[in-house]
Amino acid sequence: MEIRRVSRLPGPYPTLREPVSVRDQVWRMLRESKTGLIGLGIVLAILLAALFAEPLSPHDPYRQDIRHRLTGPFWITGNVDHVLGSDSLGRDILARIIYGARISLLVGASAVAMSGSIGVTLGLLAGYFRGRWDSIIMRLADIQLAIPTMVFALALMAALGPGLRNVIIVLGITGWVVYARVVRGEVLSVREREFVEGARAVGASHGRILLFHILPNVSASIIVISSLRVAAMILLEATLSFLGLGVQPPTPTWGGMVAEGRDLIYSAWWVSTFPGIAIVIAILGINLLGDWLRDVLDPRLRT
Predict the structure, then answer these.
(1) How far apart are CA 164 and CA 254, in angstroms?
(2) Three state DSSP letters for the chain
């Protein structure tokens, strides 16, 4: 048997494109999104300020200096010792804003973790088992939605009392409904997919199906909701602190600083203005980053 050697034809040959990793694709989308870069930069700056508050802070946020009380910003007074001015007790505004970032991020992340755990668990149960579980959980969600969030939070804070731990508990309780309703809606569609039916056919338990087959397919929505809910929790914590029901003085919080300067808004506007600006920038950055995450995790928007 004669074996002939086939020579290659001349000319260019098509080459296969190397597969693009998920990390490279995410970074490419981040570079193409200006708003995503801005949001990520703001969030990283706030995170670094919270983690390295001691070396970054120009003063002790608790130290009082009555001789320099209500000192204006440096471009007004020329006093570079207090860049953003001081409050009615002579405490440095910039130092208290930097340390206040710790409280805001701690409350936001902890409350989202608590509310997300409760809401995702209840949403999975309601969407997967349906029937009685679905009716009970959704009726509880409807009852809570009928009460304004701020009124409900104020009532719980009045019952539990002010404090950092109670603020986290209250915000966690008030925020679970969003997760439960979204996760339930997605589970209702995912539970009828072929891979779930296949898992049932081979005898997989309900817990295994929920954890390893359904939860990964709804995790994208959970991540997006969590990123956006952090901003909502930070704003709600600032509101409670402003009303005197949140974290108590002398612990520096952005909402508490705004409340301390509300009576001085005409004579010492910087006491309330700069903490308010910090709240706006933090919420803006987190929302921009959350919008970018939604674009990345939505398969209809990915190319």
Answers:
(1) 14
(2) CCCCCCCCCCCCCCCCCCCCCHHHHHHHHHHHCHHHHHHHHHHHHHHHHHHCHHHHCCCCCCCCCHHHCCCCCHHHHCCCCCCCCECCCCCEHHHHHHHHHHHHHHHHHHHHHHHHHHHHHHHHHHHHHCHHHHHHHHHHHHHHHCCCHHHHHHHHHHHHCCCHHHHHHHHHHHCHHHHHHHHHHHHHHHCCCHHHHHHHHCCCCHHHHHHHHHHHHHHHHHHHHHHHHHHHHHHHHHHHHHCCCCCCCCCCCHHHHHHHCHHHCCCCCHHHHHHHHHHHHHHHHHHHHHHHHHHHHCCCCCC
What tens digit of pLDDT does each residue of 12-25 get?
544 545 555 656 76
Count of residues in the chain: 303
Domains of the chain: 37-59+67-297 (1.10.3720.10)
Name the one residue in this structure whose structure tokens are 């809606």: 185
Asked if 71 and 77 count as a contact pair (C-beta separation under 8 A), the reply is: yes
| pLDDT tens digits, one per residue of 143-187 | 999 999 889 999 999 899 888 999 999 999 999 999 999 999 999
Q: Using CA atoms, how far apart are residues 236 and 261, in angstroms rounded to an integer?
A: 19
Residues near 226 by beta carbon (within 8 Å), at least 6 away in sequence: 112, 116
Q: Report the predicted TM-score, pTM, of the whole model to 2 decimal places.
A: 0.85
Evaluate the CA torsion angle 41, 60, 52, 255 in order and state its sign. negative
